[in-house]
Amino acid sequence: MTFSLARSLLVICAASLHVVSTDPDLSEAAATIAQTFHLVRHMQLNSTILLQTYLRHQGSPFSDLDFDAQRIYYKGVPPADIPFLEWCNLKDCERLSQNYEAYSTFFEFLLLIRNDQLELNPNQEELLELLKITHLHVKGLLSNLTSIMVALRFPVTRTVDTLTLQAVEANDFEKKVRGYVVCLTYKEWIDRTVKDFARLIKKLPAPSFSP
């Protein structure tokens, strides 16, 4: 399965979400932010395909039709859950920062999961390719988020590597569970990010965005 990687490499040069301006440069930058909204919606579709494909190749109980283990958590994987009112009241800086921190963590975990699957399912090219592409998508999104925050003069918290060799040690079943939690939670975060950008996009100059 092949997906366009060009969309994942969008880099936003400058923008402001707080004012409506007729300045050509600002309008152009705002249009690029709108493109990022389209990017995360594209990632949202791919996240569903990734989760379904991952489960299909892990064997029972993961591939069983009645499999449902959404309440499983794995240490270090950032949950997307947030109370609705708290989410509504997030400032732009907080909203972008939480996304940045979450995807910085997923950037590491997705690489780990792909390494796990290279051992567990070395011949499942479709799954391995999806994990590779998703990793590139996250890299592109992190680049976009960084550019937006810099342009808005928001602080960008540089994250550090959180996974150690000791922390990633696991048996085969634990690796499958870890991969499931990562793929599911990544999907939940993408769903949240789409909502976040839908909220932010309303602050852009109207001519720069069309649904």
UniProtKB/TrEMBL annotation:
Its main location: secreted. One of its GO terms (molecular function) is cytokine activity. GO terms for cellular component: extracellular space. Coiled coil: none annotated. It is found in: Secreted. Keywords: Cytokine, Secreted, Signal. Gene3D superfamilies: 1.20.1250.10. GO terms for biological process: cell surface receptor signaling pathway. Residues 1-22 form the signal peptide. It comes from the Eukaryota. InterPro entries: 4_helix_cytokine-like_core, PRF/CT. It holds the Pfam family PRF. Belongs to the IL-6 superfamily. This is Cardiotrophin-2-like.
